[in-house]
From TrEMBL, chains A, B:
CDD domains recorded: Trp-synth_B (cd06446)
Lineage per the UniProt record: Bacteria, Bacillati, Saganbacteria
Pathway(s) annotated for this protein in UniProt: Amino-acid biosynthesis; L-tryptophan biosynthesis; L-tryptophan from chorismate: step 5/5
Family of the protein in this entry: Belongs to the TrpB family.
GO MF entry, a single one: L-serine hydro-lyase (adding indole, L-tryptophan-forming) activity
One GO location term (cellular component): cytoplasm
Identification of the protein by name: Tryptophan synthase beta chain
Subunit note: Tetramer of two alpha and two beta chains.
Keywords: Amino-acid biosynthesis, Aromatic amino acid biosynthesis, Lyase, Pyridoxal phosphate, Tryptophan biosynthesis
Length: 449, 449
């Protein structure tokens, strides 16, 4: 009898995070100062991040110890189950073995608490009292609110307006854990007020919300900033996902995956699953197909440029070398709010540029269709973001050879996204594909370095 | 290091359900025909239930085999984790060991699929094509919709109006799994139309919704009825919860629980956890305190009569001997919709009457306060129903002796109940306590047998 759920004991939680940086084919290019365009030193980041995280951002150590206090909290929901999708396989009549890493079992319902807990821990260690952040779909904001409550820090969340309006329950979840939340663009920051003055009906974007959270941070002594994706240290903290998955596949004698899939907004859930598997691929020991899936409406990897750009809209963040659609690109209000970001993690960008990772874009209606098939077989109603990974897994499974192993990251559930299922079920969802001319227009904002 | 999560392998899923009926101090009294008041035979139930479930309803076998096909589906989420609430214990500074059985990990987010899957399986075996049911908070409706999809049966859900309006996301979940849903009182059934004619603004009740689902069933050849609580076979299917918990406590060398707690609406999640532990208590081998917790606004066990009464409002169901507030009692629209029921499972009633189980009632604001403490420590935001069990566990833990073992059933999460948290957080929740005169008035509807 094949087990559906492959479980690990708490004692088998990884003790170290895997840092892919030293294993990359092409070394990472340094982030640059937004004004001088000179490579950044730790002191440039000190106003917004604690020193321990700055060190992790730049480290070339291949492994980083996970502090005991962080491990103890991760054990509230980790190790997460690796699940053999037997019912989905049956419905697809596929020859593949489909596995998903179920990150939806965390309190916030996604992979985001993996890094939230670590980040809040290091902030607390350095005496920080309050953390400001942005959130797109609300997954990150709720994860950070939860982590701040556990360590008794204040939490201020700027939530992209379109999600704030579409997802009132995410807002309530953030409040239930004690976080303070405002829609972005807000009237709290100068930058928010400036955006509203220019575009009173602005639905916001992650780039705008990041600018607001950073402005909030630099204006207050007691506050640091926290980012839920994109940065190297965030990718690092997420590698527990793939490290566990490797042990889980080993424990049942399954072979190395042939296909590894994650959806990408900033890149962190994809990185978390894929990077530990990429360690062997980068050394030429294995050769899995590794797919980063993005929405056609925000095609950063598939249609963007690989250039230095700002992470935010106001141009306050360091410049990083990444795929970008231009830092003032505002994607349409698709329901996968967590994938509406103009940029991409520098490490994920590096891997796509070096063709270690393949990028793919899908329309949201196709993804919702696959999400419903998944819910009606495996039970779990996935987040709209996650549905992009599911759709890719299903597409791959359709023409898979006997015994091919496909693994994807079930990055989150959709319990707070049911209004988007409502839109899909009542045929109100639209697909968007950006004409290249409009993308070229947006790309003009990318600074010349 | 103490593990938070005590896990069982899929192969350790119980193979048999435990039937408490033969172990009761006082034998169960037979259900009576609604018109003749004579004891019911299986043929009287045949129009609404498949024969296999009727047999289970009446069996005196102490153990009932779980069919393989049911086990295979239960494994999508079972065995569920038993969790040591270390963070809650720390926050309470209690000497107790608090454990909760996490039934919120099921696809529908509660214990309800345990019986939904079994019931749909037996219906499918006997050629049934469509199942009609009622739902209060929506937990049962979504569980049945999910189970029907897995076995390819149609599902018609009558949802109590107050929940239908308060919980639009539950409705969408039911629809995502393919179920059809209408608010009750509806215009579909004669009974629904009659209620609406009399009370156009009716917020509905479980009793009314049951009447509608039964009317729907008896009017159609292809349809049977399914109930998510109250009946003996439902309690039976839920005993996997307690059977697993016993194995889980044994596996870590923990002693028998001193206190066992579940919230009660119809009684099934309480029964599921408690009955397997009661086996030894009924034989005098152990003597745990076993607490059934209900809302002060619907105090069936604490203020009702132990009499024969109808399960529904229209008087279409058999008469069963139970605690009841009178079959036309309409509780106020509290947020724990699943606990708004005038009656109680005959077996749970029998155990309370015989003082094997203690009943207790709490106000909803106290329960929400405890629910937030739980969410802010253990991470999981509980269903409003479940918060009643949590509140009792916290009250017990406050004056517990060193090493006292408290276990409660975390029957469901509150992801679709965030509007009720909104009401609580914004101080809009009211508590209701029924004056005895009003209860006496309602009890006049209890028929004289």
């Amino acid at each position: 009898m094949i087990d559906r759920k492959i479980l690990l004991a708490e004692k088998d939680l990884p003790q170290r995070w895997y840092n892919i940086a030293p294993d990359l084919k092409t070394p990472l290019s340094p982030p640059l100062h937004p004004a001088t365009h000179k490579p950044l030193g730790p002191e440039d980041l000190a106003p917004i991040f604690p020193m321990a995280l700055i060190a992790q951002e730049m480290t070339m150590d291949p492994w980083v110890e996970i502090p005991n206090e962080v491990m103890e909290i991760l054990k509230i929901w980790r190790p997460t189950p690796l699940v053999r999708a037997l019912s989905l396989e049956k419905a697809l009549n596929t020859k593949a073995h489909i596995y998903y890493k179920n990150e939806s079992v965390s309190p916030a319902g996604s992979h985001k608490p993996n890094t939230a807990v670590a980040q809040v821990y290091y902030n607390k260690q350095e005496g920080v009292k309050r953390i400001a952040t942005e959130t797109g779909a609300g997954q990150w904001g709720s994860a950070l609110s939860f982590a701040c409550k556990l360590f008794d820090l204040e939490c201020q969340v700027y939530m992209v307006r379109v999600s704030f309006d579409q997802k009132p329950y995410r807002k309530l979840l953030i409040q239930s854990w004690g976080g303070k939340i405002d829609p972005s663009p807000s009237t709290i920051t100068k930058y928010g007020r400036a955006v509203l003055a220019k575009t009173p009906q602005s639905t916001g974007s992650l780039g705008i919300a990041i600018s607001e959270a950073i402005e909030d941070t630099v204006g207050r002594e007691d506050t640091k900033y926290s980012l839920g994706s994109v940065l190297n240290h965030v990718m690092l903290h997420q590698t527990v996902i793939g490290l566990e998955a490797i042990e889980q596949l080993k424990s049942i004698g399954e072979k190395n995956p042939d296909v590894i899939i994650g959806c990408v907004g900033g890149g962190s859930n994809f990185a978390g699953l894929a990077f530990p598997f990429l360690k062997d691929k980068l050394k030429g020991k294995t050769n899995p197909k590794v797919i980063a899936v993005e929405p056609m409406a925000c095609p950063t990897l598939t249609k963007g440029l690989f250039e230095y750009d700002f992470g935010d809209t106001a141009g306050m963040t360091p410049l990083v070398l990444m795929y970008t659609l231009g830092h003032d690109f505002i994607p349409p209000g698709i329901h996968a709010g967590g994938l509406r970001y103009h940029g991409m993690a520098p490490i994920v960008s590096n891997l796509v540029k070096d063709k270690v990772v393949e990028a793919r874009a899908y329309h949201q209606t196709d993804c919702f269709k696959s999400a419903l098939l998944f819910a009606q077989t495996e039970g779990i109603l996935p987040a709209p973001e996650t549905s992009h990974a599911i759709h890719a897994a299903i597409e791959e499974a359709k023409h898979a050879k006997e015994g091919q192993v496909i693994i994807f990251n079930l990055s989150g559930h959709g319990h707070f996204d049911l209004s988007s299922y409502d839109a899909y079920l009542s045929n109100k969802l639209e697909d968007y594909e950006y004409p290249m001319e409009k993308i070229k227009e947006a790309l003009k904002a990318v600074p010349k370095i």
